[in-house]
Amino acid sequence: MLKSLRRRNREGMSQTLNERQLYRAAMAALARARVTLLFMSFERIRKSLERVRCEDVGPFAEAERVCRAVEMASQKLPFTGNCLVKATAGMLLLRRMRLPGELRIGVAREDRRGFEAHAWIECEGRALIGAEERERFTPLSLNAQDPASLG
How many domains does the chain have? Predict the structure, then answer.
């Protein structure tokens, strides 16, 4: 089983060493995010993922590449398909690499589904992880100092 997982992982990767290292780091970050979300309060996690401003195109392109690696790695691991796990893993990697990105959590209420929540990473108004569903959700402010959070 381990050999087949390694083979599948290699098939999904670019052949450059940097891409392979990034993919492995994404897999490790997904596992770490899953465990972290099980054992730590979200408030503590949020504080550890302070914001980094998006200032120019270079860092954005690299942040986008990191988040693509997280998305690809999440397809190979059985316990990481949850949007919050992927977004947390992406933020862990972005912070470690000092790249821009902001964790967003949104809520939606629909008659059939009831209350739902979704997490994504955003930079310059563009979603890096979780883009496919974010339009249905109203973003919450995660920053207590943010005047927008007061209503």
Answer: 1
